[in-house]
C-alpha cells in the first residue's frame, strides 16, 4: 500500500529511524534510548497501549543489536 506523503512544516526536522518516522524531539530522545538498549545484553520489556509501536521499537532494537542475525 502506498500513501501520499504528509507535508511537514519547514521548521521541523523529520527523522527516519528503522522505519519509524517522526518530527518529534521526544521521539528522537527515545531513539537514543533504543540505541543504548541495543548495546546491552540485558532482556528488555517494552510495554504500552495497543497500537503505539511496541513491535516497531522491538524490531529496531533487534536490528541494532549484536543479536540481529539470530532469532
Over all CA atoms, what is the radius of gyration? 14 Å
Helix and strand element order: EEHH
Strand order in space, largest sheet: 1-2
Largest sheet: 2 strands, antiparallel
- The low-confidence runs, each spanning 5 or more residues with pLDDT under 50, are none
Task: Give the helix proportion (percent range).
Answer: 25-40%
Shape: globular
Contiguous helical run count: 2
Q: How large is the share of residues in beta strands? A: 5-15%
> Quick check: average pLDDT?
87
Counting DSSP E segments of at least 2 residues, the number of strands comes to 2
Describe the structure.
It is a single chain. This protein is mainly alpha-helical. It has one domain. 37% of the residues lie in helices and 8% in strands. The chain is built from 2 helices and 2 strands. The protein has helices at 25-39, 54-64, and strands at 15-17, 20-22. A two-stranded antiparallel sheet has the order 1-2. A hairpin with a 2-residue loop joins strand 1 and strand 2 (20-22). Helix 1 packs across helix 2. The longest helix is centred in the middle third of the chain and has 15 residues, at 25-39. The radius of gyration is 14 Å and the shape is globular. The two termini are 27 Å apart. The model has no long low-confidence stretch (mean pLDDT 87).
Amino acid at each position: 500500500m502506498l500513501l501520499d506523503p504528509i507535508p511537514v512544516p519547514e521548521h521541523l526536522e523529520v527523522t527516519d529511524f528503522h522505519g519509524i518516522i517522526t518530527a518529534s524531539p521526544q521521539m528522537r530522545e527515545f531513539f537514543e534510548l533504543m540505541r543504548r538498549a541495543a548495546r546491552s545484553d540485558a532482556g528488555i520489556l517494552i510495554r504500552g497501549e495497543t497500537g503505539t509501536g511496541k513491535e516497531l521499537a522491538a524490531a529496531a532494537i533487534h536490528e541494532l543489536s549484536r543479536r540481529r542475525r539470530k532469532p
